[in-house]
């Protein structure tokens, strides 16, 4: 299970992947927020209220338990552990996966366009997989040889593949799979 904490104040940003959290200091030096401990701690609520009053911060906490399935209208980052469960949870929806790396120039060009597609096609689930060392076994299983590669799945099966930064080909493939 993972938590993501997003702070709306531009000077405060915190993310954590721990399974539990609480705010230990409402405001600490250098406008940083420390998150540790048990999220059910009663002290965290009062500390949170103090932070909100002092800095007018909006905090949203999202848990993997809160979102049992993939989310439409946005791109979901997946890894070797979450990929297949989220694909299966998408059931009959079309799933488009962007396989990329951090160092790939064409991948960086396609990233905002991929995000726009996710906002346009609300009946499709969009995911992205960083083909780094940690996810290498999954990338190999999916037959990734070049990045960016886009895989389109339906009913948990790969039905189309687009290699390279070819937005028009990707859009045509998505439309084709949706209409089949």
UniProtKB/TrEMBL annotation:
<feature type="domain" description="Thioredoxin">
    <location>
        <begin position="57"/>
        <end position="179"/>
    </location>
</feature>
<comment type="similarity">
    <text>Belongs to the thioredoxin family. Plant F-type subfamily.</text>
</comment>
<keyword id="KW-1015">Disulfide bond</keyword>
<dbReference type="InterPro" id="IPR036249">
    <property type="entry name" value="Thioredoxin-like_sf"/>
</dbReference>
<feature type="region of interest" description="Disordered">
    <location>
        <begin position="1"/>
        <end position="23"/>
    </location>
</feature>
<dbReference type="InterPro" id="IPR017937">
    <property type="entry name" value="Thioredoxin_CS"/>
</dbReference>
<dbReference type="Pfam" id="PF00085">
    <property type="entry name" value="Thioredoxin"/>
</dbReference>
<protein>
    <recommendedName>
        <fullName>Thioredoxin domain-containing protein</fullName>
    </recommendedName>
</protein>
<dbReference type="InterPro" id="IPR013766">
    <property type="entry name" value="Thioredoxin_domain"/>
</dbReference>
